[in-house]
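Supplementary notes for students who missed Thursday's class. We covered one full example, reproduced here. Read the sequence, then the structure, then the short commentary at the end.
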Amino acid sequence: MIDSKGYRPNVGIILCNDEGRVFWAKRKGANSWQFPQGGIDGDEDPETAMYRELWEETGLCAEHVQLLGRTRYWLRYKLPDRYIRKNSTPLCIGQKQIWFILRLMTDESNVRFDCGHKQEFDNWKWVEYWYPLKDVVYFKRRVYRKAMDELGALLIANDVGVNAESYLSGRLAFG
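Structure (token representation):
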């Protein structure tokens, strides 16, 4: 599914633990790290797609996480020219994403990478909240920053049982 402007609808997932650290996953067979993400199928709303992608990429189900929030609007990034498949129709020039922030509510031993039809990741680690901005591929950094700014603010809410220290500690460096 590509929209009329050439963007593929997609969801992004920031999964945090009680210490406010985030799940950072290594793409299978590459030295490339990212948050879980994936396309929205034609019959799905963003939340449904998020839970499907969460399961396919991490083996975690809805009962394993607490949904803390989502971005209000679509966040877009364009693909660099070399990644655009010029011969495909319709032409996809990038992705538009709704981002979600989740809290892990189960033991991390439930994480597994063999649930989807194609394994996306082969390793993962907990990292400080702002670390992904330094490590993600360059063309996704602006979208990551917007999503992390908007959703990280939820970690300092009184009703969220997550230690926001990781979020707050890097705020000055990236703010």
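Commentary. The first strand starts at residue 7 and ends at 16. Residues 9 and 96 are 5 Å apart (CA to CA). If anything here is unclear, bring it to office hours.
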